[in-house]
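Notes from hallway chat w/ T.B., transcribed later so I don't forget. T.B. wanted the structure written out for a chain they're using in a teaching module, and asked if we could keep both sequence and structure tokens in one place. Agreed to drop them here.
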Amino acid sequence: MRSAAAFLFVVLAPLTALASYVSETAGFDSTQQTPSNPRTGSVNDGLAASLDLNDKWSLELDLAGTHDEVTKAVAGSNMRANGGNVFAGALEADFAPTSKWFFDASINFSPATMVQSTTTVAFTPNGGNDQGQEVDADGLINARSSSVGGAVIASWDNGGNPWDTNVIGVIKASHLSTTQALAALATPRGPVDLAELRAYCAGGGAGKPVCRRLGKSLRLLPAQLDEMSIGFVLDETIATNNDLALSGDYYLYSQDPTEVGYFSIASVGRSATVGNGVLLAPQVWDASLSYTRTLGIFEVGLGLGYGPYCGGGAARSLTLKAGWHITKRWKLDGSALLDSDIDTDGSTVGSFTGALGIKYKWGSDVDS
């Protein structure tokens, strides 16, 4: 991960002479390993630089690197996965024609990289016939994934006082490509022939969650998922130091999103934003409510989120945030995201995401 952070610094360092602000955010996440979520956690680092071209236009570049942690087998074999490194970036253009209107267009990208993980595969040998007994085996998953996408945002602010209303509309689109291969299968007694699992998924196990997730990986077929979301944010600032925000998104997909394989492996690190956590599966919709209070040079915030997963289960989150305006130019931000999700198999999956960032602003107007 040090090499990833060093690479991002080298790329963004020349921009600091022109930037309006630069920031760095370091984060990590830790999650329970389940059959539908093979991951155990990751560490990441993100750098951002913004440049004001004039009083109406600005540009922002974000780069992030993620190291997905090593995972160990849980079914009793000596299998071990190496994790992987993932990079992501985003380029944004902001336009504020008036004091009330604001527009943003962005593109994001994450080049193809490999992530390796272990997972528990429960199946019945001999094709899943009635004579067989279900066994838990450790599977080694190699996932090579990439993504590209974009977003457009329109925002209107009434500029009121003491009630300041901000209404935001968001449209996002993305393309996720992942090729996942089940490279090996083993129990405490030794390796298992993959042909036995193929026979199970073609016979008595057809339609079961494990076979839906492994369907393409057993045949070495790539999975493509196009996603589009339409969202909104209603933000109300009351008496300057109280901020209440309600947001929501609805998602559309080009195909059944439950058939792309292990979604958490394919999507980890594919965003240039650090600290948002990793979803276990694609969502049908999501909604969140947050409150932020400004106390002099400090800010504290609390947020609640919920969104059902495609194929069953739901994401449930509690977010805590804090900010410290050290000076007019320096600011320190921290966040903690606690999830208690229900995965597509009906299991409760707990996870924690933490992030700490520092931001420095340029410009003569900062001290005014």
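Follow-up for T.B.: The first strand starts at residue 21 and ends at 31. Might be a good example for the class.
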